Amino acid sequence: MRSTTPRPAIRRLVGAVAAGAALATTSGCTVPIDAVAGISVTDDGHLLGAIMVCGHHIDGATLHVDTDDANNASPSARWTADHPLAPGLTTWPLDPPAPGWSATGPLTSLAPRTTYALYGWTKDNSWSSGHVTFTLADLDGLTPGKVYYNRSTGIGEETAVTVSTAEFRTAACPKN
């Protein structure tokens, strides 16, 4: 028996299903970004995490080896703030103990020629920060009062920059 459904209709249906499947597999669930992470240093050269919260809150931060395989990105360190970070700039020493933060284990020694990523998160995955990626060589010459971070170019790309803490505070969050 011959089908009464015209072939162009079947092709459109198959095309729509294929397009829907492709969209579903490429639009995975991501956490919206509403903060920017950076790295700074103390007067004695110890690393500081820096989070500029733009509008909501952040509960903690994770530093891990940067890898394309998120399942293999084991944390080097993880910090949870005693209270959610409100909009504005927060810095904390990456070497525990850090007042106002609890750390899950000590910061492991950072290795030369290894790329790390630091990012902020919320306990309920409602918000996150943009990450900063760096190697120890990237931080050579970083001085107190400066922040190294990945600045958004506004066209979906990022560039690593070092700016004053004041500029990070005023320029890190996108202007709407």
For the CA atoms, what is the radius of gyration? 21 Å
Percent helix: 10-25%
The unreliable regions are 8-27
Indicate the proportion of strand residues.
35-45%
Q: Which structural class best describes the helix and strand composition?
A: alpha+beta
Question: What's the average pLDDT?
Answer: 82
SS field, number of helical segments: 2
Straight-line N-to-C gap: 61 Å
Q: Largest sheet at a glance? A: 6 strands, mixed
Q: What best-fitting shape do the alpha-carbon axes yield?
A: globular
In N-to-C order, the SSE pattern is HEEEEEEEEEEEH
Number of strands: 11
Keywords:
alpha+beta; five-stranded antiparallel β-sheet
Please provide a written account of the structure.
The chain is an alpha+beta fold. The protein is built from 2 helices and 11 strands. Strands 1, 2, 5, 8, 10 and 11 form a 6-stranded mixed sheet that branches. Strands 6-4-3-7-9 form a 5-stranded antiparallel sheet, with no helix packed on it. Strand 1 (33-41) and strand 2 form a beta hairpin. The termini are far apart. The model is unreliable at 8-27 (pLDDT under 50).
SSE arrangement:
Elements (H helix, E strand, L loop, with lengths): L6 H20 L6 E9 L5 E7 L4 E8 L9 E11 L2 E6 L7 E3 L12 E6 L6 E3 L1 E3 L11 E7 L5 E7 H7 L5
Parallel strand pairs: 1-8
Antiparallel strand pairs: 1-2, 1-10, 2-5, 3-4, 3-7, 4-6, 7-9, 10-11
Task: Give a brief outline of the structure.
This protein is α+β, with helices and mostly antiparallel strands.
